[in-house]
Amino acid sequence: MNTKLSLDFGKIIRELRKGKDISQEELGFRSNLHRTYIGMIERGEKNITLESIEKLSKGLDVSMKLIFEKLNKIHQ
Fold it and tell me: Where is the HTH cro/C1-type domain (predicted)?
């Protein structure tokens, strides 16, 4: 995939995850997603579904709105 949108989204997820000081494995556990899938998202290699975005937001303990606001700021 690696489109600008996917790369920007992955960057946001990585920054939020690191800001909470959790590993990809821990985020995967919290989100009920596989850790390798988390890595692929962070590298912009996956076209993520809304369902997975919701799982990530819950795993990161942030709102989907926050994720999309951050995405809107950097993806213009």
Answer: 13-67
